[in-house]
Structure formats: C-alpha cells, structure tokens
Design the sequence.
C-alpha cells in the first residue's frame, strides 16, 4: 500500500522517494496539508513560481475539463528535467479520481503530480486510487496535538528572536485549536504584537488570544463583516471610550477572518453551500451569529480573505509602532474592510 501513517509523514517528506510521481496530501487540517505540500515541492527542487516548469490547477477546473490532467502530465517540460503539476482543492470529484487512476496505471515520466485534498474517508475514490498505486503516495494530515503545536510555537517565536515562559506557553497552547493554519496565524499574530521585545509574557498571550466577547468587541467585528458602518462606528467609539485597547478589536477581527478562511476553503473544495459549512463548523458558530456568517461567506472570496488578514497583520504592527495613533489606525483599517464587505468582498 502506497501510504504513510500520520506520524510517518514528516519523516518521509524529509527524504521523499524520487520514484514517486504522484503525491496526495489530504486531511481535515487544511493548514497542515498546505504546509506539507510546500515542503514536498521544496524537496523536488522544482520552481513552483516558474510557469515553464510548473502549473497550479484547481480541482474544480479539472472536473469541468475531462482529460486535462492527463494532457498536462504528458507535456514535456522545456527548461527543466521534470514539470510540477500542483492540484488544489481536491475532494470527491469523480472525474479527477478517474484521471488520477489513469495516471497511476501509467505514471508520468516527465511530471510530478501533487494533489492537495480535504478530509478523504477510507474508501474514497481518490484516496484508494493513490494508496494502491506503486508509483504514488498518500500522506494524511490530522489535527495538531502536543509536540506538533510546540514545534509551531518554537519555529515562529525563534524566527522573531522571542522566548516564552512555561506559564505563557501553557496559556497559548490552550488557546490554539486543531488546525495548523489557524494555530500558525494565532502564533504569528502574537509574535507580531511582541516584536522588538525579548520574551512573551502571560499578559501578552491573554491580550492577543483571550476571549474578548465580554467587552462587546464582537459587535464591532460583526458590523465589519456585515458592512454596517453606523453600527461599527457606534461600537468602536464606545469601546475606545471605555478604555478598550484597539489591539483587542484587531485581534478579534483576525480570529474571525481566520475562521472565514477555513470555512471558505471547505466551500470551495467540496462545493458546499454556506449554510452547510457554518452548520458543521468546529468550533461551532454561536446560533445568534450563524445568519451573519452565512451571509459573509459568499461575499468574501479566498483571495479577499487573505488580503484582509494581511491588512490586519500590518495594522497590528503599525499600532505598535505608533501607539499614539493606535485607535485611528485600527479604525481606518477596519472601515476599509467594512467597505469591502459591503461591496461584496471581491
């Protein structure tokens, strides 16, 4: 069987078999799937950003164009020994599974096919096809636990030259969920907040990752998502007047957009309606907010959400650099997102 157990994946990725031409990386932890896909591409030595030696495709594109994957795999690269075909958003697509089955039967000589997929149950057509291929490999990605979470924390904080005490680490770990992308975003946000210092304190963790709903911050964030300028202005002004630090509003907005990012990815990968994605979300969306989130998801495309998160991260840094302008800077960034949401998030 051409597959690895969850704990064997990282070891295989450090020294992948050069004879493997088809790699499927799948699992419920989409952040970890994306991270490991990048690690595999790095090991192939192929330039993922070179249009002459690589191509990125969405599974939905291939589903609408039967045989295209086979044509791409048969294309002889012009300026490299092999060509990378990187497929994203795979799931239960029947045509994709059929095309992969044909590739498994006759592995491409000049191409490496990398497929990112969501949670594929045992027996799913795509997963079974790759698992039974002699020149293919299936790599599962499951939720972060224990040492894996600590590794993410150490990697990001080490990059910023930051240390963290035991008490603060425990509080940070307790605030992180089971998705690698969300966990990484939370730690990067904390590192950005503490940039320029030497140690992350418990107070820093509580400020950036704690539950802030009791301060009424969710009202301001919800107003941003719904494009309601009047409600946002009233909520934000009330919070700042009460002494609430703008960092908290930005942090809450980042958490909400991170959740939207995960749900939007599920919508795109599995062609699910917003209501179904929100209903099955983990952690669950509070029932009073479900309609708001259901309405926001179609308005915000995956690229738009990524841009929103970049804007929020940059704003956090600006408020640190100019504390005297923190409220004005945060307000301006959030209003920009509010306007984009009102226009459709696209």
Sequence:
């Amino acid at each position: 069987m051409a597959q690895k157990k969850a704990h064997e994946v990282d070891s295989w990725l450090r020294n992948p078999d050069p004879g493997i031409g088809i790699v499927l990386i799948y699992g419920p932890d989409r952040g970890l799937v994306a991270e490991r896909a990048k690690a595999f591409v790095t090991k192939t030595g192929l330039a993922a950003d070179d249009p002459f030696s690589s191509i990125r495709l969405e599974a939905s594109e291939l589903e609408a164009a039967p045989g295209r994957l086979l044509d791409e795999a048969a294309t002889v690269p012009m300026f490299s020994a092999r060509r990378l075909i990187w497929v994203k958003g795979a799931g239960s697509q029947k045509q994709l599974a059929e095309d992969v089955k044909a590739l498994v039967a006759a592995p491409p000589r000049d191409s490496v096919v990398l497929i990112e997929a969501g949670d594929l149950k045992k027996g799913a057509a795509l997963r079974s096809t790759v698992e039974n291929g002699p020149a293919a490999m299936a790599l599962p990605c499951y939720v972060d636990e224990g040492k894996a979470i600590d590794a993410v924390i150490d990697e990001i904080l080490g990059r910023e030259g930051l240390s963290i005490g035991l008490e603060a680490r425990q509080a940070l770990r307790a605030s992180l969920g089971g998705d690698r992308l969300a966990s990484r975003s939370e730690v990067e946000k904390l590192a950005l907040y503490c940039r320029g210092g030497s140690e992350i304190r418990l107070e820093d963790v509580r400020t950036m990752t704690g539950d802030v709903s009791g301060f009424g911050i969710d009202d301001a964030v919800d107003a941003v998502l719904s494009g309601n300028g009047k409600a946002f202005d009233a909520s934000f002004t009330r919070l700042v007047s009460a002494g609430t630090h703008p960092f908290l509003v930005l942090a809450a907005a980042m958490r909400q957009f991170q959740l939207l990012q995960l749900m939007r990815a599920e919508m795109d990968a599995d062609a699910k309606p917003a209501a179904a994605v929100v209903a099955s979300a983990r952690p669950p969306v509070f029932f009073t907010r479900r309609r708001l989130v259901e309405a926001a998801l179609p308005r915000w495309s995956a690229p738009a959400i990524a841009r929103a998160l970049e804007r929020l991260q940059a704003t956090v840094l600006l408020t640190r650099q100019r504390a005297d302008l923190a409220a004005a800077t945060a307000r301006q960034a959030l209003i920009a997102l509010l306007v984009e949401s009102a226009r459709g998030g696209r």
